[in-house]
Design goal:
Distance between the termini: 18 Å
Helix content: 25-40%
Oligomer: single chain
Number of helices: 10
Number of strands: 13
Radius of gyration: 22 Å
Number of domains: 3
Largest sheet: 6 strands, antiparallel
Strand content: 15-25%
């Protein structure tokens, strides 16, 4: 069975199992870096928010021998048991004065998302390969953060300029998602302590992750939820304050869209080797959808300016899984 037939078969099978007032829809969603995913949703009349499940992994499971009936059963169970939060009524999103406190921005690679950006209000970062795009932060639970991407049609409906969106997001994003800077060993140590699968006593953890032995010292900049935190480097004053604290310029390594690594600038550090390391990690360790850039950046304290530190890095290239 070819992929398109699989999608149609799943859709028809779900329709047969559901009541007539349910609408079963197959949708293709373009995600970060131009990656596209196919998914399915079931919507009952007057439901403002519906569960959506990506089907690409289920197709691979089908090719490995999982029966279509089992896949349909698992999907139906997942979709019907999905506990969605309460959200405001749709009318709220039609009135700009009621959404101004929820507009936030996120950071993506501009080159890898060039086609996607045609339909999105965005701010290109001067002299960098990055763009800011805008979302509504709808609601947050203990397990999930629900957001909605802002398209140009929304911007037109609200009669808001891109600069309007930017000024709102510039204020809202740091307030809703405060920045956090920790040393790399400290972050790894905290993750290790919280992991129930690792049976390591705290003294041994402190010995393993001794920050005094790390050269060059590395710090992680992200937000308090650890998701889409790379944009924190554009929070007002965040890099300036940290560089002033260290008394040095900063080298920024774009670890992913979720965080960046910061290294105090040092003449002994090779930008070329760092750029090669970032590119290698992107290719081998970072999922396509989470990649931010293969470049490295330099923050100058005296100029209060972020620029490319090494200009011959390879651009982000992605392929669908």
């Amino acid at each position: 069975m070819v992929y398109e037939q699989f999608l149609k078969s799943v859709q028809n099978s779900l329709k047969e199992r559901l009541e007539p007032d349910y609408n079963v829809t197959i949708q293709t969603v373009t995600k970060n870096n131009g990656l596209t995913y196919d998914g399915i949703s079931i919507k009952k009349k007057e439901e403002p928010l519906v569960p959506f499940v990506y089907l690409n992994s289920y197709y691979h499971s089908f090719l490995s021998g999982t029966p279509l009936e089992t896949i349909t059963h698992n999907l139906l169970t997942l979709l019907q048991n999905n506990d969605l939060p309460k959200i405001p009524s749709a009318e709220v999103f039609l009135e700009p004065e009621r959404i101004t406190d929820t507009i936030i921005y996120r950071l993506i690679n501009e080159t890898a998302n060039r086609k996607r950006l045609e339909d999105l209000p965005h701010i290109s970062i001067p002299n960098l390969d990055l763009s800011l795009i805008f979302y509504l932060s709808i609601t947050e639970t203990s397990d999930h953060l629900f957001t909605a991407l802002i398209h140009k049609r929304h911007q037109k409906m609200w009669n808001l300029s891109t600069d309007d969106l930017y000024q709102m997001a510039k204020s809202n994003t740091p307030r809703l998602f405060p920045a956090r800077i920790t040393s790399l060993p400290e972050m790894i140590r905290d993750i290790t302590k919280r992991s129930p699968d690792l049976k390591i006593v705290e003294k041994d953890i402190d010995d393993i992750f001794d920050s005094t032995s790390l050269y060059p010292p590395m710090y992680v900049l992200t937000n308090d939820v650890g998701t889409n935190g790379s944009v924190c480097m554009f929070y007002e004053g965040i890099l300036k304050d940290f560089a002033s604290h260290l008394g040095k310029d900063l080298i920024i390594l774009p670890s992913s869209i979720h965080e960046v690594l910061i290294i105090p600038a040092d003449k002994k550090i090779s930008y070329h080797e760092l750029a090669e390391t970032v590119h290698s990690i992107n290719q081998e360790e970072v999922p396509n959808e989470d990649r931010l850039s293969n470049h490295i950046y330099l923050y100058s304290l005296s100029k209060d300016q972020l620029t490319l530190a090494f200009t011959s890095s390879v651009s982000i290239e992605t392929t669908n899984p």
